[in-house]
Amino acid sequence: MILKFIKETTCPDCGCKDIYSEKTLRHDPHSSGKWAETRTFVCGKAFSFSPNFNKVIEKGTCIRCKFYINERKRRSIALTKIRGLVSDLKVDEEFKEKLYLMIADIGSCFYISENI
Ligand SMILES: [Zn+2]
After folding, report:
1. Residues near 32 by beta carbon (within 8 Å), at least 6 away in sequence
2. Per-residue pLDDT tens for 67-91?
């Protein structure tokens, strides 16, 4: 697909050129005559053209960038420490199981915000 407003062809973090998806709303243009476009790379980094702001906005998180890899390691270590704390608590096993489930739920939401 040829995008008109998004010129980025590689991820600025890892250099990935593999495109996961591209979308355009050319059929539904903004009052300016321009339309929304999105290009998402396989690594997760994405660019989106906003006709409202008339600019390309960087989105998504490159899962191959050092920041993301390091942040995932820190979060994994934190979850392991919390599991250890729960294990040492002087409470009944049923309550511990509930706490473990809460921790598992946090672990399943391992998406890292761009705002960190
Ligand atoms: Zn990338």
Report:
1. 51, 54
2. 888 988 898 899 999 999 999 999 9
